[in-house]
User: Fold this.
Amino acid sequence: MSLLERIGNVFGGRRREDVDEPHAPPRQAASTVPRAAVNDALAYGVAIVPVTAAPGAWYWQAVRIHHLSPEENHGNHHIYVDLYDSVGTGGPAGYGPRLFGGRARVTWDSGEQIVTVEKPLGEPGANFPMWKWQVCGVEALGLPGAELPSDRVTGMHTGHPDEAAGNTLFHHSFSVTFLRVRAPEAVYTDSVIYGHIHRAAGRTALLMREDTLVASQAIAADEAFRFTDLGVGDYTVAMDGTDFRSPATHVSGQDQVQLDLTWTPTGSLLTGRVRNGAGKSVRLTLDGAEVATQIVAADETYRFSGLAAGAYRVAVAGTSAITGIISLDGLNDAVADLVAPSADKPLLHYVLFAPPDQPATRVNLLLAQDFLLAFGPSFGFNSDAARCAGQVTIIADPAGVSPQVEADLAADGARIQRIAGSVDEVAAALAARVASGQPF
Assistant:
């Protein structure tokens, strides 16, 4: 008995179009609209790559991909292909007639082969024997001179483990059915992808279509995100600054898809900018011991990822520039900026107070003790000394250190911040900087 006869016997000796095949869509009236594709070969790495068809255009849809069971396969290693029309009658499950003479292209890394639907009804229309280790894809072409765009089915091969007699290593087969359908005339952009990314509150979710950024939004405190007004296509949810990516999600332009995702960090992330630091080396220490070094990029940034919990500091090698203690818990992110000294700014950081004879100066000195101890800047009451620093913190109101002095320091190239206000406001601003490990 021939292979094709044995496959025919799987359907009880009846005409193939007279039976519902295993895993086939339920019977329905023939229609030209695209169908919900069925792919029971996902576990074998077989995927459908949808084609993008213009509104109202005809194309070939991969409507069914089936991995043959041991009882169906009988030890073969083939791709069986059928092409059906959606106009007319005679096909299985509401399909139109089989397209005799229709062609499909089977491809692999080193070549391709055209197969033609020419077998009798009750047998697969065309077949292609796969070689050992060959990985194949297939797409429909249609009749010569009437080729149409087609979905592509990828990842078919025979290198799967033994299952039972009939399906053993290098003896697996797949059935692929294409249907000529017509894309909807209207282009809908009403799909929604929403859900939660657990452990990601406050981060930025990115919606990607292939490698193109479609939209972004902050993940809410309840870990929720929601992207709306989406057209038909495959989308991936990613997270800015991480390697996190969701599986691809297909939407029709009219549906809603809910995702429940969890981000599992692989360690804390520490980033920052080193002003005047491009090309210099930064040292990362953990509890005082050096754990990593890095060359500052041309844009003056650095990035240490995958960090375990601990107390870290970043220093610019060969200088006195160093951050305060940065506490990481293995999950959180932190930003720590520095200023490397330059030839005309030998001081890294200077804290400028109002003249010592002003009553508020003594109060500000007391309030600034923890800030001065945490970051070790130079400090005093002299604006000329402040000109030697790349960063200047003014702890005084405008009556104590004038806006003109502040403007002159900024014009001279210094990075300036002023901390002023009531006693409580000054104390809170300084305490926040100490807590963050960042003087600015």
